[in-house]
Design brief:
By secondary structure, the protein is of the alpha+beta class. Strand 7 and strand 8 form a beta hairpin. Helix 1 runs antiparallel to helix 3 and helix 4 packs across helix 5. The longest helix has 23 residues.
Length: 494
């Protein structure tokens, strides 16, 4: 029987299972049936369990051959790392012996042929395999083992760390490989069955079952672009890169992360996102995304109050990169992006995903709040460079004790600051408004309550204009971290 026949058979079994389960659990049974006096008239609970068992087994039997073990040999560590003695120290190892040398220099003895393992799923009969980017990160060699124990050397087609996805390829030789069928993750509903197959802790082709706990999860902290499927199907180390399946045996996600401190909290990348990334990696070896050329941060309650807006819906522009698309469109630091292409922007992840999905070169209308007024702009989307957009974290504060000085050459060198205008923070008093706002020694203050400060005198004037009790935005630049806004709460009593 072909794949389509198997699919139809599975659907029939699942339909029968659902009907039987409904009859057993949802429909009240006659008292006679409950007492056992009318045996045979009620549903056969054993048959129901067998039908459910057969449904799961059918999915596992059909999809397991397309699930692979991905074994990676990492690149050799530079001298002095991973147990390798730095150049010139080998004579000490020879003199003291490996054990004393490692103890003296506090180095771990290197393992022979170190490898890390994960999972993957064959998505194309020509040998393309979808897995996680972190599984094949820094790989010197990649080996793929199939369910029939055949092993293949694999080549890396491309990685996309921003979604934690990667594609590798093997040469299937004489015949095609068993490829899994991809589903539609946009149609998922919370409560649906979910089946995970992978190689947790090296236990090949482990099958676990649960439900879809949630969809569209963000702020997990695993990737730049997140809209994870959450599931309670058991996912463990080694499952990374393996498929999450629905009851039709279609791949609905790529398992990628767990909450180690919790139970039954695993995350998978939606297959619709994975499909888009995979197609670009296969066609181009990289993923092309739209780009605005701005640093952004979430609009907290304090920041919203500081900028005089009533809602936290929107994204705050912390910095506008020189010669970028946003600068060309007239965007400025302190703008609050509330709409892109006619679609409201509620938070940072909304903006990131929407901009990334726009082809470079396309002009898009954009709405911002600037000085409490609405401004309409048109931006020509650029192509995102290798470095991802910076997302700065807003700081909260409760209480002004700060000392500043002019940005001279000495201060710039001492604090690692680039040239420009602003005043350098040289001291922050404990338990002060500045400390509570997260301002630190070495920060470069660029704005106070939307007023540029290029000198100590300008800084003093800006501070003198502040009113007791108000919360105001302060733009700072920090060595190695770019620009961001913090909220400074002026003490009620100066």
């Amino acid at each position: 029987m072909g794949q389509e026949g198997n699919m139809e058979l599975t659907r029939e079994r699942l339909l029968a299972t659902g009907m039987l389960l409904a009859a057993l659990w949802l429909v009240p049974q006659p008292a006679a049936a409950q007492s056992g006096s009318a045996a045979g008239k009620g549903p056969d609970s054993k048959a129901i369990l067998h039908a459910l068992e057969d449904a799961f087994a059918s999915v596992a039997d059909r999809v397991t051959p397309s699930v692979v073990n991905v074994s990676v040999k990492p690149k050799k560590a530079p001298p002095g790392e991973g147990g390798q003695p730095p150049e010139g120290e080998s004579r000490f190892r020879d003199f003291f012996g490996p054990e004393l040398y490692d103890r003296f220099f506090k180095r771990r003895a290197p393992r022979e042929e170190p490898r890390s393992a994960g999972s993957g799923v064959i998505v194309d009969a020509r040998g393309y395999i979808l897995t996680n980017a972190h599984v094949v990160e820094s790989a010197a060699e990649i080996e793929v083992q199939l369910s029939d124990d055949r092993k293949f050397a694999a080549t890396l087609v491309g990685r996309d760390p921003k979604t934690d996805l990667a594609v590798v390829k093997i040469d299937p030789g004489a015949g095609p490989l068993p490829a899994a069928e991809l589903g539609d993750s946009d149609k998922l509903r919370t409560g649906q069955w979910a089946i995970a197959i992978g190689n947790p802790f090296g236990l090949d082709r482990t099958v676990t079952v649960g439900i879809i706990s949630a969809t569209g999860r963000t702020r997990v902290g695993v990737a730049t672009y997140e809209a994870f499927i959450q599931t309670d199907a058991s996912i463990n180390p080694g499952n990374s890169g393996g498929p999450l399946l629905n009851l039709d045996g279609r791949v609905i996600g790529i398992n990628t992360a767990i909450v180690s401190s919790g139970q039954g909290i695993g995350f998978a990348i939606p297959i619709n996102m994975a499909r888009e990334v995979m197609n670009q990696l296969i066609a181009k070896g990289r993923v092309v995304r739209g780009w605005l050329g701005i640093s952004i941060q979430g609009l907290t309650d304090d920041l919203a109050a500081g900028f005089g807006v009533s809602s936290t819906g929107g994204v705050l522009v912390a910095d506008v990169l020189k010669d970028g698309p946003a600068e060309a469109a007239g965007m400025k630091p302190g703008d609050i992006i509330v709409e892109l292409g006619g679609v409201p922007i509620k938070e940072v992840t909304d903006l990131q995903k929407r901009v990334a999905a726009i082809p470079p070169g396309r002009e898009v209308p954009l709405t911002v709040l600037r000085d409490r007024k609405t401004s309409k702009l048109t931006v020509k989307i650029g192509e995102q460079p290798g470095e991802e957009t910076v997302v700065a974290a807003g700081s909260k504060g409760e209480g002004l004790g700060v000392t500043v000085e002019e940005l001279g050459e000495g201060a710039a060198q001492a604090y690692g600051l680039r040239g420009g205008t602003g005043v350098v923070v040289t001291d922050v008093a404990p338990d002060s408004a500045a400390a509570a706002a997260g301002i630190k020694e070495g920060d470069l203050v660029l704005e106070v309550n939307r007023r540029r400060v290029g000198s100590v005198e300008e800084f003093k004037k800006a501070v003198a204009a502040l009113k007791p009790g108000e919360a105001v935005p302060v733009q700072i630049a920090r060595s190695g971290a770019g620009r961001e806004y913090v909220v400074l709460k002026v003490p009620d009593k100066p």
